[in-house]
Amino acid sequence: MITLGGPRPEESRAMTQTAERSGGPRPGRFVGQSVRRREDAALLTGRATWTDNIALPAALHMALVRSPLAHARIRGIGAEAARALPGVVAVLTGEDLADDFAIGLPCGWPVTEDIKIPEHLPLARGEVNHVGEAVAVVVATDAATARDALELVEVDYDELPAVVDVEAALQEGAPLVHEQLGTNHCYTWPLAVGDVDAAFARADVVVEGRYLQQRVLASPMEPRAVVVDPDPVGGGFTVYTSTQVPHFVRDLLAMICGVSDSKIRVVAPDVGGGFGSKLNIYAEEALALALARRLGRPVKWTETRSEHHVATTHGRGQVQRIAVAATREGRILGMRVNLLADMGAYLQLLTPGIAVFGAFTYCGLYDFGAYSFECQGVFTNLTPTDAYRGAGRSEAAYAHERIMDDLARELGMDPAEVRRRNLHPPFHEPRTAPSGVMYDSGDYDACMSKALELVGYAELRAEQRRRREAGEQVQIGIGIGNFTESGGLSPSKVAAGVRLQSGGWEAATVRMTTSGKVEVVTGTSPHGQGHETAWAQITADALGVHPDDVEVRHSDTAIAPFGRDTYGSRSLPVGGVAVHLAAGKVADKARRIAAHLLEASEDDLDFTGGRFSVAGTSGPAVTIQEVALAASLAADLPEGMEPNLTADHHFDPPNFTWPFGTHICVAEVDTETGRTRIVRYVAVDDCGPLVNPAIVEGQLHGGIAQGIAQALYEQARYDAAGNPTTATLADYTVPAASDLPAFELDQTITPSPTNPMGVKGIGESGAIGSSPAVVNAVIDAVAHLGVTHLDMPVTPQQVWRALSVAGHTARTA
Amino acid sequence: MITLGGPRPEESRAMTQTAERSGGPRPGRFVGQSVRRREDAALLTGRATWTDNIALPAALHMALVRSPLAHARIRGIGAEAARALPGVVAVLTGEDLADDFAIGLPCGWPVTEDIKIPEHLPLARGEVNHVGEAVAVVVATDAATARDALELVEVDYDELPAVVDVEAALQEGAPLVHEQLGTNHCYTWPLAVGDVDAAFARADVVVEGRYLQQRVLASPMEPRAVVVDPDPVGGGFTVYTSTQVPHFVRDLLAMICGVSDSKIRVVAPDVGGGFGSKLNIYAEEALALALARRLGRPVKWTETRSEHHVATTHGRGQVQRIAVAATREGRILGMRVNLLADMGAYLQLLTPGIAVFGAFTYCGLYDFGAYSFECQGVFTNLTPTDAYRGAGRSEAAYAHERIMDDLARELGMDPAEVRRRNLHPPFHEPRTAPSGVMYDSGDYDACMSKALELVGYAELRAEQRRRREAGEQVQIGIGIGNFTESGGLSPSKVAAGVRLQSGGWEAATVRMTTSGKVEVVTGTSPHGQGHETAWAQITADALGVHPDDVEVRHSDTAIAPFGRDTYGSRSLPVGGVAVHLAAGKVADKARRIAAHLLEASEDDLDFTGGRFSVAGTSGPAVTIQEVALAASLAADLPEGMEPNLTADHHFDPPNFTWPFGTHICVAEVDTETGRTRIVRYVAVDDCGPLVNPAIVEGQLHGGIAQGIAQALYEQARYDAAGNPTTATLADYTVPAASDLPAFELDQTITPSPTNPMGVKGIGESGAIGSSPAVVNAVIDAVAHLGVTHLDMPVTPQQVWRALSVAGHTARTA
């Protein structure tokens, strides 16, 4: 009898041990170690500084009057009663602020030339297009008064018909979200590689699937918040905002508010999670700046939890159609993907690009010859969608792993075996994927084999057969999620058609002060990822110092003027590598100075433990701290050398990295109640060498939890009129730790050739491999009862109903 | 009959015209032009941000209880009544703050190994050593309450005998400023080059002088002020302070308060003049930080004008003895200099070094073989002395030009002729001066000849003879001030013995944003010098953009982490050159990208007006703004090139620069009243090529005014007990514009070989050449009546008395 319980203690330690053994291209004293996160002490003891903790004296507080209707014309706004409330400083409408903004909230990823982009003002003028859209702003001397005043603002609406479903939205006669566009169609973005029609024509079997990617909410621990403080010097503004992207916020606020980008300093203080929802510029940020400028006082706003449900972008929101053509032996010949992507009512920063970005990973780990993809963006009267952990690639992995199980069932083959027959062979130099992009490196069979072995696949299949044959009430299913993600978001390197106007580089500066301390400035903007710890490890190894002597500065555009911020699993493979390369430049300069001071050749120097000495001698040595002081005093430097020990590096990777993995979920489904219990969860990931295994584990834990949440629990639901029915956390069921299994983690390591550290990124992998593994497991548990399709979230109710429809009669309790 | 009036209109334009013609090593479209100062609009219309304008809500206000006695033991401090005053938050003594400071206020220029450095606490403990020393601090919710509370603090003193004169201080049995030192002697610093005794032994004539350099006050328009704001994020502090040296303040506050330097951000807002007095770290800055740390609220302090007179460092304060040995033909053979330098009661940052720094310029423009110098630092019960415009070099020029006139009188020669016989011949590569330092370049005869010609020297001498012979009541005198200053303070390059622990480099970063704007970050810290204008000119020429598109950021250690700040005429020849070199790196990178984009060879590209094109063709071109965008998008860059158009340069000059000049003052002295009127003032300066002639003129106007003020008006006076008798601006007579003549300025240009721009600096020249020219003119007017010695300030009373003593009987009115 096999164990279905969680990992034994010795298994949970395996990951760290493996990582410690693994090394990588640059093994070091600290890189590869589970150095304790320096960020955690403050976070865990309540001493973190969230934006809402920033209490600037005399700050004004902002609150937003939001539309209660999904679609309506604004006939008038009565603000007199609100203005009369003591403590209210101003009540302003979109009309009042007509001259405060140079442009509306911009879309930064117009995926096609003829994409339709509706104007998106920080405050609505004339019409509202989703519940939660802001129509007026109240400013008061305290937050409670501002919120009280909201109820005194009278908005007179003419309700209009709403559309909330992407398929309905494209039907003839559907209500139009934006009448002036004449259509709810936003764009069509196609990709075709190889002769797909021919592949399908010569196939032995074709399987097709229609899967729903429900809308989900980021639900970070910290909702959004912003404080704009007019600078006491120079006429600029300091913007404290809970964002993943302070540099984007600087550049975009400058454009929206008509301020020179050099007059805006954006600081992201401690940020309590983003998950893609804080990779944006929001109306409230622009409003706070406009009001601080108008009123000459700090202006603050903090999102309520219910505002988060309607005013912060949603994730996912797609209808996926996928078809695979294969031989009878299970070899895939071609794949067709057709998406309808729900834009919501407006295009936020990356809205149109999210689904398109997935185009390149629907082929997953599998090698075949013909691939086509088409995505249509569709407007609805709902909150805009945008990035959400795993964006595009999570949806892709879900679809391709669902269809692989469908194909296996069609062929009567084992799902692992079908997958194995289609894997790319191991490769260590870039290899072209069916979608036309170049994967960097991979040994997919090794990874999947390790996962199958770790979970005890054969024994599980035997146990499954036993239970089926016994007709037990609780059946088990085994679901596999093979996936690749693309890390190091680098749009400029993507093939034609992805028109994001931004380079994929990241900047780092490393400098030593005269006191021998090291300062690292990074353009990444951590919000839970532990960059302060990991970048210090990387720098410490390069400079032979202790990580405690390395201060990492970030998330402040005055201090780090160049940066592309944190999202898309880019921070380590782009930003961390930039730190590594900048630190390497500093070490090289230190070596030249040390050679000069020691009157030796650079090549003859040993550099160990932060000390330069002449190799093979016990003669004089000089520490790197002494070199830093000498570099500042500049009294005795090599001819022509500039003073000071500082260097920057702007690293522009030649390609995405392509982390990958195999996640396996073992689920028990109670066929009487429809309830699913995950009993095992094995994840073998390959993100190249590990800098800090504990951080990698943490990223995987969180990501897998998030994928399980989408698979089983979460959905932002609306009624037919566009009213949210999950407007609070009581309705929107975020799982708790007790709802989740223990995770069994392991990894393989195939270094990426795209960067000198070989690292690939791990921020999203957990959220990509998990939802298909879980849903496949549930279906696998009940497929023999006739249930071969379920949609996320796979609730007990849905499973029970599907079993009923399939003819499985539950015993009465 | 010659004109003794001010310059004719055509003369006052001469300087700008000459400068526009002059060019220099890097003539450009904007460099060399009198571009209007961008700083002035805000300054002239009351929109500048002085530190005192920074009104952080909920800020606490600090006021200091200061000693009314020059020397006393503190027996006790009664603070109860002050603490009881409503609005008072805290009253703290030195004892209360014993644990708040890791060290006292440091001396950063210990000129000898055995220098005596008394402990200098931010608040006195046990003993006070000068009037104005802080003994307790009051913190209140508003500034008026804080000041009211001062009168309620009762300090019980035991008065001790005080010493206020450096010569008296060295006498046996003099009261000791610091009893524990056992002496008032601080240090002795000697220098000797050549065989001075032999030179004096073989001389035909020896002349000796004893000159007094009175104490003067900086009297900036804006007194000192500081606001310390605890950062809302990260546990650090933002320090707004009216300083010349934000980087030094950061590093020194970190040491004094025991805070990591990376936790202190120093911002110098608009600073209303420094003149050396804000090149320091002061007790109030340390106290404000300590109190902000204790109380968790912003703490603010603004100096009153009367506090400025006792609590801000004084300038000068020396007794100079100088002797020159010469041949009968007027050739100098040797020079001896002996100084007593008044330290005051404590050593501030640079106190001991100021007089020592002058050691290298007592030989002025003159070439001779033997030189000795000795300076003794002496403690007195007065406010500490420190840097003051021209520091060290102004005193030197005063002494050597006084003694040149004494020598001329002794020899019966014309003062110009004596000088001419001793000038170095023209040189364009470094040349050793009698003091052992290397001068960079100079054509001293050309400069002096131009000044003599411009003033009409021969005609003036004729007029002087006429008036003498006629026995007119109003006599005229002609005074010459030849001088060299050392610009680009670079202590690491000075010969042995100057032990200032700092490199002489300056840092600059130049970057272009994607919007095509240019940001310059400079480590210099302007406080009136116009760096924003001048650095924009330099950058604009290098990058082919307009200066209006260049933003210059400075005086904020978060934004400009590397910097050595502004003093000692260093900003242009070190910091401006760093900007020039960094901009050159950016232009070079832009050229490489442009060549790549245009598919041309770099060498074939023209770069004109910000456009790169293939030379000799009318083919495609690319602007540098387009190059900047391409560098950010990074989609098409040369192989291996890092993205973004940014570069920094840390420029470490190989030597000081040595600006020089000849100033000539023509003064009328009313022999009946002793009143002096300056009727002509001609200055020919050589600071290398001019970047902005209007700014050069402004620097000269201010500097000459300051030198005239020392010569004729200003002195910080004390009674024998150490009580200041010039404690307000009513007693301390700062001259007004109406007290000053029109200045006739011109220049010669000998580029410095120490930097690629050839620039030398001009910040202090005016304050160096003027006081000897003026005093020499006054003496020259009355020497024939027997008055050959006067001391600064040359008041009418002093002149009248000296004439009386000499036997000149004034006619009664």
TrEMBL record, chains A, B:
InterPro entries per the UniProt record, alphabetical: Ald_Oxase/Xan_DH_a/b, Ald_Oxase/Xan_DH_a/b_sf, Ald_Oxase/xanthine_DH-like, AldOxase/xan_DH_MoCoBD1, AldOxase/xan_DH_MoCoBD2, AldOxase/xan_DH_Mopterin-bd_sf
Keyword Oxidoreductase: yes
Domain Aldehyde oxidase/xanthine dehydrogenase a/b hammerhead: 45-161
Keywords: Molybdenum, Oxidoreductase
Cofactor(s) needed for function: Mo-molybdopterin cytosine dinucleotide
Superkingdom of the source species: Bacteria
GO molecular function, one term: iron ion binding
Keyword match Nuclease: no
Region (Disordered): 1-31
SUPFAM superfamilies from the UniProt entry: CO dehydrogenase molybdoprotein N-domain-like, Molybdenum cofactor-binding domain
Name of this protein: Carbon-monoxide dehydrogenase large subunit
Species, as recorded: Pseudonocardia asaccharolytica DSM 44247 = NBRC 16224
